[in-house]
Each structure stands twice: as C-alpha cells, then as structure tokens.
Amino acid sequence: MSAVVRAARGGLGGRKLQAIIIGLVVLVSTAASTLALGMLADAHSPFDHAFAQQHGADLAFTVSTAHLDAASPSWWPC
C-alpha cells in the first residue's frame, strides 16, 4: 500500500460516517449536474428536429443598401 492511501485510511478511521455522507453528496451532485447538462442539451432538440424536417429556411433575403439615401422613406422601394 502506498503512503498516501495509508494516510488517507488512517485519517478516516474515526470519521466513517462523515466520509460516507461526503461521498453521497458528491455522488448526488455529480448525478444532478449530469442530468442538468442532459436536459440543457435536449432543450434545443425540438427546434433542431423541426428545422431539419422542414429542410431549412423557406426563403433567404439579401438586402442591398447601396441604393438607399436619407431622403427616401424606409418603406419606399428604390
């Protein structure tokens, strides 16, 4: 046995209940964070599936502002 393991085991000799409680807290917090990350990843899935089912955007626009000036209204075609 290495010295580190022996020292750790010796330090936990009288504190088994505390070690078990800390281990359970670490286990539960790890499980909760894993579940939260999984839910966060799945939160965007419905949009991704619907977007893929529609095969992307229906229309794409390109707006050229080269022909506009400050005198023309924004709704008036140039």
Write structural notes for this entry.
Helices cover 59% and strands 0% of the residues. The protein is elongated. With 78 residues, the protein is an all-alpha fold. The protein has a domain at 15-53.
Throw out a few tags for this protein.
78 residues, mainly alpha
Quick structural gist:
The protein is mainly α. It is 59% helix and 0% strand.
Largest β sheet strand count, sense and barrel closure: none
| SS element count, helices | 3
Radius of gyration: 30 Å
**Helix and strand string, N-terminal first?**
HHH
Tell me what portion of residues adopts beta-strand conformation.
under 5%
The helicity comes to 55-70%
Poorly predicted runs are none
Mean pLDDT: 81
The count of strands amounts to 0
The structural class is mainly alpha
Molecular shape: elongated
What is the topological layout?
Blueprint: H1 3-11, H2 16-43, H3 45-53
